[in-house]
From TrEMBL:
It comes from the Bacteria. InterPro entries: Cu-R_B_prcur (IPR007939). Coiled coil: none annotated. Residues 30-40, 50-61 have a biased composition (Low complexity). This is Copper resistance protein B. Keywords: Signal. Residues 1-20 form the signal peptide. Residues 26-65 are annotated as: Disordered. It holds the Pfam family CopB. It comes from Thermomonas beijingensis.
Length: 292
């Protein structure tokens, strides 16, 4: 072997070793990346398998929620009032729906009071006005029996005074809250001498703000026969309407202003004009609405 071959052989061995190390250095990261990617692909599946197996382990633990008892149901849904509950306290209320001074220089009022239980109540209703020292009013005493959560049937007596001889009536009617929250009263009356009367009224409260209320109101009266001594004719005798805006300083105390109309019809209008009066009236009103 010549000297040239002796020198070339070690050089070839060194180059081969370096090439092998470099090839190994570039190949190992690729294999490691492939293994890492394979592990990443397997990890969600293993996690999903573990999470899906978790409820099974919980159900396998044998836990069951306790059965509901009557005490649990009573605590969740308490009875507000039982028909057999004797704790029905005696309650009462006095309310002035309208207590006002009118532009015609008259003091007018309309209100009611009641006392009783949920099973039945005694109602007192009053409406009238005092003009130039003369008072015209009606007073009713009625027993009210609820027929459902919204309506009462009432029956009793009524007494009219002022503007002629006094009149007494037997009364029966309904009062309550109609759909769309209209407060309604409709009462039929039967008096002596074949006299009859039907009176109906309705009002609605429009909430403008938490304290500001707009209240439209309308009422009408029908008489079965003439009562000339009191200036009343048969048929539709009178209608009235009003629009009042009140501010509730408290729910129990609210001043208001408004505008009211009153119109006599038919023979009632003719009798009023023959007596020197007018068939229609209108004007501003101001007053208080209160209750306790």
């Amino acid at each position: 072997m010549s000297m040239r071959n002796v020198i070339a052989l070690p050089l070839l061995l060194c180059i081969g070793t370096a090439f092998a190390q470099e090839h190994t250095h570039h190949t190992m990261p690729a294999q490691a990346q492939a293994q890492d990617a394979h592990a990443a692909l397997r990890q969600p599946a293993e996690t999903e398998t573990q999470s899906s197996a978790q409820p099974a382990s919980l159900s396998a633990s044998g836990y069951r929620p306790p059965a509901l008892t009557d005490a649990d149901r009573a605590a969740a849904f308490p009875l507000l009032r039982s028909h057999h509950d004797h704790a029905d306290p005696l309650l009462w209320m006095l309310q002035a729906n309208r207590f006002e001074w009118t532009q015609a220089d008259a003091l007018a009022w309309s209100g009611n009071a009641w006392i009783g239980h949920d099973r039945g109540r005694l109602w007192l209703r009053s409406e009238g006005e005092r003009t130039h020292g003369k008072t015209s009013a009606r007073l009713e005493a009625l027993w009210g029996k609820p027929v459902n959560a919204w309506w009462d049937v009432v029956a009793g007596v009524r007494h009219d005074s002022g503007h002629g001889p006094a009149r007494d009536w037997l009364a029966v009617g309904v009062q309550g809250l109609a759909p769309y929250k209209f407060e309604v009263q409709a009462t039929a009356y039967l008096g002596s001498g074949g006299r009859s009367l039907l009176h109906a009224e309705a009002e609605y409260e429009m909430l403008l703000t938490n304290k500001l209320m707009l209240q439209p109101r309308i009422e009408a009266s029908f008489h079965g026969r003439d009562d000339r001594t009191r200036g009343i004719g048969a048929g539709l005798s009178e209608t009235s309407a009003g629009l009042r805006l009140r501010y509730e300083i408290r729910r129990e105390f609210a001043p208001y202003i408004g505008y009211a109309w009153a119109q006599k019809h038919g023979r009632t209008a003719s009798l009023a004009e023959a007596a020197g009066g007018t068939a229609n009236e209108s004007g501003w009103v101001a007053g208080l609405r209160f209750w306790f």
